[in-house]
Amino acid sequence: MSPLEIGIIGMGNVGSGVAKILTNQADMLTRRAGRPIHLRKATVRDLSRDRGVTLPDGVLTMDVNEVIDDPEISVVVQLIGGIEPAREIMLHCLNAGKNVVTANKALLCEHSDEIFAAARENNCCVAYEAAVAGGIPIIDVVGESLASNQLLSIEAILNGTSNFILTEMFNRDASYDEILHEAQQLGYAEADPTFDIDGTDAAQKLVLLTHLAWGTRVSLEDFPRRGIDTLELADLKYAGELGYKVKLLATSRLTDDRLEMHVQPTLIKTDRPLANIDGAFNAVSLMGDAVGRTWYCGPGAGQMPTASAVVSDIVDMALGRTALTFPHLEIWRAGSEHEVVPREEITSRFYLRFQVEDRPHVFADIADILGQHDISLASIIQHESPELDEAKEGECSIVPLVVMTHRTQLGKLLAADKALSELDALREPRIRLLVAD
User: Fold this and answer.
1) CB 239, CB 170: distance < 8 Å
2) Segment 297-319 mean pLDDT
3) Residues 204 and 349 placed together within one structural domain of the fold
4) pTM of this structure
């Protein structure tokens, strides 16, 4: 068969990895795809830069139109990040009749309707395995392998940077700022790590998985999102005392035909597999009505894991698998939209930490306010405070008080928080974290 001609737009870290696999594994890919896969053009900003792979003369170009306008190129690997010009370029590719493979989760999160519509209008396909969880083939699992199941829940660690920071903070008794700086030096975190540490990256990936699993279009504004940038080492340690680890957990759960969604630091029991995913790894736990619970773990970012996912999509394009499945995804999702549970109705157990004056009746006041809002307590930690003669004269010692609640609604905690803020014996900060069941 004639070769499948590939064009790459964006020869950064991942693009160079794709070029390496296509070049170094050409024979294996030919056997698996049933035809040669040939890298015809790749766009770059700097022709002189060393990318760790030797390509034939004429492959590299600084003109993106050499890819879009080349009639021989049938698949474009679009690896430009962000929204623009990535959106415009992708639409040009689709309107030119080219299939697209991409790793751009931010673009698909915001503009998938427009992009998928353009693909259908031009009889093209969009494949995006590399957009979620790097080297873990989770798009294939959710979209195809578990097609016989009604998915009931997705729980996932989807950001390796945050997971690395939390792991190292706890294991080395180190501060957030110290480990963030180290993560940047190691290349796990960008110079501006905002999207990783504030939960945006994980939330974008959760939006894509939720749409694939349930057909529900969700924006980032529709569900709570909180990152790890406000976490303190003390809370990781208290969680450990209680038998939990703290992970940035992305959750979508089908409950009474509605979707409960959130991305936030969450306490997970140490005997659960997700609690033991350390370092820069990602993991996804899926619950299906037929198969039960399944787990998937692997590197969620990096040059070669992400390139691996990109090339797997290219092979699917060569075999015609993508052309068979992509047009039908919208059909089987049709009519399956679910309402997203309002933030106040999210139900969970909660970890609460208060900074309180060590004097009589303080805990009773806190317990009374929580009780008035129908919040019952499951456990309490209060470490021994200094003796009065060790405290400054005329001042009370400030001590941490950690409470684990039974299941309750977030709205009740928010209402209780207003009343708690009026207690003179409480100091900032007041910490609230979810506890995974």
Assistant:
1) no
2) 95
3) no
4) 0.94
**Regarding beta strands 244-255 and 258-269, do their DSSP bridges make them parallel or antiparallel, or are they unpaired?**
antiparallel
Mean pLDDT confidence for 187-216: 94
Question: Does residue 224 lie within any of the structural domains?
Answer: yes
- Give me the mean pLDDT over the 58-78 stretch: 97
* Domain around 173: 138-299
**Number of domains present in the structure of the chain:** 3
In angstroms, rounded to a whole number, what is the distance separating the alpha carbons of residues 327 and 413?
45
Question: Which strands sit side by side in the sheet containing 4-9, from one edge to the other?
Answer: 60-61, 37-43, 4-9, 75-78, 99-102, 126-127
Active site residue 205: yes
| Cα 253 to Cα 63: distance, rounded to the nearest angstrom | 45
Structural domain includes residue 244: yes
pLDDT at 392 over 60: no
Task: Indicate whether 334 pLDDT > 70.
Answer: no
Domain at 188, CATH number? 3.30.360.10
Ramachandran category for residue 133: left, alpha or beta (phi over 0 → left; psi -120 to 50 → alpha)? left
Q: Of the residues 41, 98, 105, 205, which is catalytic?
A: 205
